[in-house]
Automatic annotation (TrEMBL):
This is MarR family transcriptional regulator. SUPFAM superfamilies: Winged helix' DNA-binding domain. Pfam families: MarR_2 (PF12802). PROSITE patterns: HTH_MARR_2 (PS50995). It comes from Streptomyces mobaraensis (strain ATCC 29032 / DSM 40847 / JCM 4168 / NBRC 13819 / NCIMB 11159 / IPCR 16-22). The lineage of its organism: Bacteria, Bacillati, Actinomycetota, Actinomycetes, Kitasatosporales. One of its GO terms (biological process) is response to stress. Residues 1-50 are annotated as: Disordered. Residues 11-24 have a biased composition (Polar residues). InterPro entries: HTH_MarR-typ, MarR/SlyA-like, WH-like_DNA-bd_sf, WH_DNA-bd_sf. It comes from the Bacteria.
Length: 190
């Protein structure tokens, strides 16, 4: 097997020589030619500084993610419910006759049809809801809250509220901007 060949390296002299023969940009000023330094390509551009609205929105999303994580963890640990399941039970409990069409539940939860179908399947398997056919439209399906679902939602509400309050207070203590924002929201919303 032949020995690997060494890669040629440029000597300091050849680099200097190449630099001295680099093209020179000339400009005309007052009718005479004037040489200036060669133009080098710019390095990587620094990212633009986000606007105040973008920075505010990112902080809001970070606060939202923190609070949702805390809520989700507490509800799962203490009540065996995911956050979307808890919210679905809440929407059903507040609805007239404790029932909603599947599409309406999906819209309120901000979920697509496939996701809400799986969620309702879990609630049904746990005995918290049942499905009923819409009397006016045989293709329409209602999700109806069972008493077990109402009881689980009621039991989980105290955990939800206590965890929410603690997470918001923690955020306000650790982030001055979040504290000011929360105080303003509380003042506006009463």
């Amino acid at each position: 097997m032949p020995a690997p060949t060494a890669r040629p390296t440029e000597s300091a002299e050849s680099v200097k020589s190449a630099a001295s023969t680099a093209p020179v940009k000339s400009t005309k000023a007052s009718g005479s030619a004037k040489a200036s330094e060669s133009v080098r390509p710019a390095g990587p551009a620094s990212p633009p500084v986000p606007s105040a609205d973008v920075r505010m929105w990112h902080r809001f999303l970070a606060l939202h993610a923190h609070v949702e994580h805390r809520l989700s963890t507490a509800l799962q640990r203490h009540h065996g419910l995911g956050l979307s399941e808890y919210r679905a039970l809440g929407f059903l409990a507040a609805a007239p006759r404790s029932e909603l069409r599947m599409q309406e539940l999906a819209d309120r939860l901000g979920l697509n049809q496939s996701s809400v179908t799986r969620l309702v399947g879990r609630l049904h398997a746990a005995g918290f809801t049942y499905r009923d056919v819409c009397p006016d439209d045989k293709r329409g399906v209602y999700t109806v809250l069972e008493e077990a679902g109402r009881a689980r939602h009621a039991a989980a509400t105290a955990t939800y509220e206590a965890t929410l309050t603690a997470a918001l207070e923690e955020a306000a203590e650790n982030d001055e901007g979040a504290g000011a924002t929360l105080a303003a929201l509380r003042g506006t919303l009463g």
